[in-house]
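Good morning,

Attaching, inline, the backbone tokens for the sequence recovery test we're adding to the shared suite. The designed sequence is right after.
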């Protein structure tokens, strides 16, 4: 029996859940490991010599591709990661055929709720038979196929599926000259939407005048326009980027353009088309065009997000990050944030370009003012005729609940973090460990009835201004926008007349390693989303500290890192294990802290050795370990 290192799918137990197990397998296999009476899914990484009593059974062979396993093992030697989540990002990158069904019997009258829903989806476009679709409509699809109502189309990995449409009969919505010119000709659906408009196309589909069909394409290429300007020197601003990209494409050098979010990448892809540059957008799914761009020896331009770096690149010569440096960008999975710089190929040149925001930043002193007075100031500056953004980076109604009589603050009994009051759900929540409690009638310390909310949350600002917070970028119809950084990072640039940063003091006191870095990043985003002639107002009770941060931010962050004695990702380590007694060489250890919900022990270490060495030492003593570093 061989022993294997397995990456576990167990998000509750930390960032890098690894174990060793015995069995017959190969790297990339999906297995089920029996661990302390629990059965957990995992992906086999490599063979190891560590002794173990755990066993596994194989669920699916070749679940994860070999190229991303190799990348995981390379990064794991220097930085602990949740390999299972990372490997799942690459499982869609397999050369599997895609199966679609398209509607044929347009006069069919559906019976039942599910049939009506399935027919509605098929009238809109051909439907891909994914696992989710088959789970929901398996019986209806099998019935439709047996009756000939739908037709199955298999798209091989070497091709790409594109929806076409044919105008089969005259309609009042289509002018006669257009019908005579384009009738009975299969043309891309996007062409009809551009020609007639989205609403008209939907009406034509309802009339069964426009018939949809699936076409299989083998390639799609666009030549570089030779009449547009070029630039040899690497760009420093976003405005200089298109001429530089055109120069790289002519040289045949492959380039990856990395944006912090997919929304930003899509927006820039539209701008690239205006400059007549051939580009491929990596939106996270599998397309043959994208795979050809990765494996081709020639040049190409790919626009994507930090996850795009995980693709199996061949001869990638340039990575250009936009808005942020590679060390500030991250590959995000369900429970972790992995530094992008760890995954960049060695021989690839890296550049960073920034927009040129000239928006002015103005500090507003709130020294000596209570929460009610701060809310009154916000109410006073609110102008419904202007486009205004209010950034409150705190969920809930208030950041804490405090006794007015004795000053006691209600805290989480499990982790000691102040509990936040949520007005909608009428309960207290800990945003660190997930603890939930009801609101007590009186103070636990002095038993007075003087408990009051303290600190500004987004629900409190919603109540003050009479506006709901922004849920997505689709809700930008109103002039007043209240948002957190989770949503406002994806807003279109230069759309607000004024921006107000309300939670600056709370962000600077947040329990992260270097809060100043987070504060400066939010300021830069606010500059980008505000018009150049507009203002960014920062509300704070400590104006002097903010002045020095805005003027000398980078040097202050560097000095803080040096004072802590930490390199970029540090040697401060949180380790979670099922073992109660652990000791490490050249490390100061605090703990263990027992977590009854998880039935595990957490240790806090400051080690002179790099995380790689600590992880290696831990795996020699125990069969399961979960890691997190800062």
């Amino acid at each position: 029996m061989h022993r294997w290192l397995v990456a576990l799918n167990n998000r509750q137990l930390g960032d890098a859940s690894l174990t060793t197990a015995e069995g017959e397998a190969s790297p990339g296999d999906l297995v089920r490991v029996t661990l302390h009476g629990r059965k957990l899914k995992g992906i086999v990484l490599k063979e190891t010599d560590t002794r173990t009593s755990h066993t596994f059974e194989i669920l699916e062979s070749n679940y994860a591709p070999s190229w991303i396993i190799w990348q995981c093992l390379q990064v794991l030697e220097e930085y602990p990661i949740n390999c299972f989540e990372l490997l799942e990002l690459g499982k869609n990158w397999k050369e599997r055929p895609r199966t679609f069904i398209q509607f044929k019997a347009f006069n069919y009258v559906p019976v039942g709720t599910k049939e009506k829903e399935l027919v509605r989806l098929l009238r809109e476009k051909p439907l891909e038979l994914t696992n989710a679709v088959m789970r929901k409509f398996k019986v209806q699809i099998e019935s439709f196929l047996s009756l000939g109502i739908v037709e199955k189309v298999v798209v091989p990995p070497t091709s790409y599926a594109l929806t076409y449409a044919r105008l089969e009969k005259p309609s009042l919505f289509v002018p006669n000259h257009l019908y005579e010119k384009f009738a009975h000709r299969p043309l891309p659906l996007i062409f009809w939407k551009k020609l007639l408009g989205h609403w008209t196309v939907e009406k034509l589909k309802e009339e069964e005048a426009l018939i949809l069909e699936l076409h299989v394409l083998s390639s799609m290429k666009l030549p570089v326009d030779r009449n547009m300007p070029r630039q040899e020197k690497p760009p420093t601003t976003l405005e200089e980027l298109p001429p530089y990209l055109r120069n790289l494409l002519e040289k045949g050098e492959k380039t990856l353009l990395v944006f912090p979010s997919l929304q930003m990448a899509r927006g820039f892809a539209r701008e690239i088309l205006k400059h007549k540059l051939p580009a491929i957008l990596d939106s996270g799914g599998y397309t043959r065009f994208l795979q050809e761009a990765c494996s081709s020896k020639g040049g190409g331009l790919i626009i994507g997000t930090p996850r795009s770096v995980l693709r199996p690149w061949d001869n990638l010569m340039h990575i250009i990050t936009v808005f942020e440096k590679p060390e500030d960008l991250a590959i995000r999975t369900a429970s972790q944030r992995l530094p992008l710089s760890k995954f960049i190929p060695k021989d690839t040149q890296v550049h960073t370009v920034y927009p040129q925001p000239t928006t002015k930043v103005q500090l507003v002193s709130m020294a000596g003012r209570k929460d009610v007075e701060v809310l009154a100031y916000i109410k006073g500056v609110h102008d419904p005729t202007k486009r205004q953004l209010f950034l409150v980076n705190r969920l809930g109604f208030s950041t804490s609940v405090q006794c007015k009589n004795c000053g006691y603050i209600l805290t989480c009994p499990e982790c000691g973090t102040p509990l936040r009051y949520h007005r909608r759900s009428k309960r207290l929540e800990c945003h660190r460990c997930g603890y939930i409690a009801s609101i007590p009638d009186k103070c636990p310390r002095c038993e007075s009835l003087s408990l009051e909310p303290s600190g500004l949350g987004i629900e409190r600002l919603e109540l003050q201004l009479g506006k709901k917070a922004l849920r997505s970028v689709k809700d930008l119809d109103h002039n007043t926008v209240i948002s957190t950084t989770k949503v406002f990072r994806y807003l279109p640039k230069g759309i607000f007349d004024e921006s107000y940063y309300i939670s600056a003091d709370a962000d600077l006191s947040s329990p992260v390693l270097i809060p100043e870095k987070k504060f400066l990043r939010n300021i830069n985003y606010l500059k980008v989303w505000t018009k150049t002639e507009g203002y960014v107002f920062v509300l704070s009770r400590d104006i002097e500290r903010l002045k020095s941060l805005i003027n000398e931010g980078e040097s202050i962050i560097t000095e803080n890192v040096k004072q802590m004695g930490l390199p970029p990702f540090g040697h401060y380590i949180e380790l979670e294990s099922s073992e109660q007694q652990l000791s490490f060489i050249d490390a100061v250890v605090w703990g263990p802290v027992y977590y009854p919900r998880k039935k595990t022990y957490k240790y806090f270490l400051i080690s002179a050795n790099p995380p790689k060495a600590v992880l290696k030492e831990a795996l020699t003593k125990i069969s399961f370990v979960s890691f997190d570093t800062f």
